[in-house]
Design brief:
The complex is a heterodimer. Chain A is α+β, with helices and mostly antiparallel strands. Chain A is built from nine helices and 21 strands. Helix content of chain A is 24%, strand content 34%. In chain A, helix 2 (92-101) packs across helix 3 (107-120), helix 2 packs parallel to helix 4 and helix 3 (107-120) crosses helix 4 (136-149). Chain A is elongated. By secondary structure, chain B is mainly alpha-helical. Chain B contains 13 helices and no strands. Chain B has helices at 2-37, 41-45, 58-65, 69-101, 106-115, 121-135, 141-165, 169-177, 182-190, 195-211, 214-219, 227-234, 243-272. The chains are: A alpha+beta, B mainly alpha.
């Protein structure tokens, strides 16, 4: 199976534009996560690919074939929803076998396929149980197994972990990883949970207001967001943003920031007068002694967060920024005065329309 | 500590005794009816009532010797079953459509449907009589069955819509994606999950149709006569009220319904709550 491609896809519900002219392609053999806040259009995009919704404008291609007008049953897709769809009153095996019955497969073939997905999803012990005896995670695994056994060209996941409790999520993620490693299909996974996207995806397509703002592997997306939105949405908490002025001096542009001891030189062809500096809280260097390139900051607040890390809220030249540091160090510095330094390799500059500026940075 | 426990226990016993007494008060007419059906006519009318008597089956034997009784019984059974089955099927399909396709004004339509149940039967009996007389449906089986079905549908739609709303549309979509047709979804995917609702709708309607008197009396005919109408026509035959006949017939006629409801009473409860009380049934 080759890629799934959407061209100029637009979907309107009344006056509300859910999807705004999306051009994108989903490669085969990779897990593509559609990540974004509620209402950004990610589920709508998934439903249009499945055929459950029809686009207002634009086309959907599976390989070279235009499937825009095809009903879902002719698209050869598998879909797993938020809500674990398991038919009551029949065994797990029957549940998985159900869609296969329609395809005129021989009994041995059906058996083989079901057995294979049962072992893939680690469900062998459940095979003969009635579905009402299962917990939520097992039910959702059955839904996944059913979609996979059907051997579709494309498997779509619509927030499949929403109804699974926190402890079982790890179990489900593990099964999902194991499964996708062995599949060679187009896999699209919709979620609003960044941790899920980060751990499961080969590439993440970040969505906002009906558009895909960036698509990269999780690490790149996290470290160098192409858009202010990506920096803000990812991470816990998201990036620190500081608005600064940018001036042209000779052939280069100079930014004088309250967060930097020396002026910042940026090697870019064109700059707006107002730019935004972005840096993730865990990338800022924090120290309790003055350093050559560090600026002084006041501690405003200090809280303990996940993994024993400390989250500091600091005030630097009238700007509030957040800094995350390790447990031991975080506990040691309790006083009100600290020094911060922003390593240039983690600093991201955005222009007036909040897009990233590509250019070499150096301190003067 | 112990005395408090004892107090609690006594309180509980008293409470249970009270419940038993109330239940018996409500059950007493039925008990009276049952007892009377095994008494002779003279024994029934004795004051004070005779509690010790030799039960006789004579009344029941007499019942089956009456001309028409078998026909009435067959009519009652046939018409209530077919009317209710039609009603449940139609309501199920209607409820599915309302629940899934949500046509414009669904809420209003649902309200209008239910309001049909609020119109007193006596108010519509004359218009319906005129309608049936004009169309020639009066006294026909199909006319009666359709009437009863029509009368049963609104409430059943209400019950079933609640149940179908409780079945996630994701079930439908999974089936669509996997290549199932709409009929497959309705009957193979949704129906098994709303079975309690179907049974509840069935029970509510069968109670109504089984006991219905007024319309059968007015728009029915000789051919379509049911047991309740037969009772009304037969209990004064031969001068005076035939109490042993009334008691025997009602006892015999109520029995199937009582047994049926005894076994399916849990569905009666889920039906009354329109499927909003989940619980496994």
């Amino acid at each position: 199976m080759s890629e799934v491609k959407v061209v100029n896809l637009t979907k309107k519900f009344g006056r509300f534009t859910a999807l705004d002219g999306i051009d994108f392609s989903f490669p085969a053999g990779k897990v593509t996560c559609l990540l974004g806040p509620s209402g950004c259009g990610k589920t709508t995009l998934l439903r249009i690919i499945s055929g459950l919704e029809t686009p207002t404008e634009g086309k959907v291609f599976f390989g070279d074939k235009d499937v825009t007008g095809l009903p879902p049953r002719k698209r050869n897709i598998g879909m797993v929803f938020q809500y674990p769809v398991v038919y009551r009153g029949i065994s797990v095996r029957k549940n998985i076998e159900l869609p296969l019955l329609k395809r005129g497969l021989s009994e041995t073939e059906r058996r083989e396929r079901v057995d294979r997905v049962l072992s893939l999803m680690n469900l062998k012990d459940y095979a003969e149980l009635d579905s009402s005896q299962l917990d939520n995670v097992a039910r959702q695994k059955v839904s996944v197994a059913r979609a996979v056994a059907y051997q579709p060209d494309i498997i779509l996941f619509d927030e499949p972990m929403t109804n699974i409790d926190a402890n079982s999520k790890i179990q489900f993620k593990h099964a999902f990883k194991e499964l996708t490693r062995q599949l060679n299909q187009v896999i699209v996974y919709v979620t609003h949970d960044q941790t899920e996207a980060m751990t499961l995806a080969d590439q993440i397509a970040l969505m906002k207001d009906g558009k895909i703002v960036q698509c990269n592997d999780p690490r790149t997306l996290y470290n160098v967001p192409e858009d202010v939105f990506g920096g803000w949405f990812l991470g816990n908490p998201g990036m620190n943003f500081v608005k600064e002025r940018c001036e042209k001096k000779g052939s280069t542009y100079i930014i004088v920031s309250r967060l930097l001891k020396r002026p910042l030189k940026i090697d870019a062809p064109k700059m707006d007068a107002e730019v935004t500096l972005g840096i993730r809280p865990e990338h800022i260097w924090l120290s309790d002694v003055p350093g050559s390139d560090a600026v002084e900051a006041m501690v405003k607040d200090k809280t303990l967060t996940i993994g024993g890390q400390y989250l500091y809220t600091l005030e630097v030249g009238g700007e509030k920024i957040k800094v995350k540091v390790g447990h031991h160090f975080g506990r040691a510095i309790g006083n009100t005065k600290v020094w911060v330094e922003l390593p240039l390799r983690h600093l991201v500059i955005f222009d007036g329309s909040e897009r990233r500026i590509h250019g070499d940075l150096s301190l003067q | 500590m112990e005395s408090r426990d004892r107090k609690k226990r006594i309180k509980r016993r008293l409470y249970h005794a009270l419940l038993w007494i109330i239940s018996l008060v409500f059950f007493s007419p039925i008990l009276w009816m049952l007892i009377c059906s095994f008494k002779t006519k003279d024994e029934i009318l004795t004051i004070p009532p005779k509690w010790i008597f030799t039960p006789t089956l004579q009344n029941y034997i007499g019942l089956f010797h009456r001309i028409n009784f078998t026909r009435e019984l067959i009519n009652s059974t046939f018409m209530s079953l077919s009317a209710v089955l039609i009603a449940v099927l139609v309501s199920f399909l209607a409820a599915y459509s309302f629940s899934r396709f949500k046509p414009k004004g669904t809420d209003l339509i649902m309200f209008i449907l239910l309001s049909m149940r609020m119109v007193p039967a006596a108010a519509v009996v004359v218009p319906i009589y005129l309608l049936y007389a004009a169309t020639g449906w009066k006294g026909t089986y199909s006319g009666m069955i359709l009437f009863y079905a029509m009368f049963s549908i609104p409430f059943s739609v209400w019950i079933l819509k609640g149940f179908i709303d409780g079945v996630s549309p994701r079930f439908d979509e999974t089936a669509i994606v996997n290549g199932g047709s709409r009929m497959h979804i309705i009957f193979k995917v949704v129906l098994p999950q709303v079975r309690p609702g179907l049974i509840a709708a069935f029970i509510f309607n069968i109670i109504f149709v089984w006991n219905e008197f007024l319309f059968n009396y007015i728009i029915g005919g000789k051919r379509t006569i049911t047991v309740p109408v037969g009772l009304a026509q037969g209990f004064t035959v031969g001068g005076g009220i035939q109490w042993e006949f009334v008691a025997t017939l009602t006892a015999f006629y109520s029995l199937p319904l009582i047994i049926f409801i005894f076994f399916f009473q849990k569905y009666l409860l889920v039906g009354m709550t329109f499927g909003t009380v989940r619980g496994e049934v």
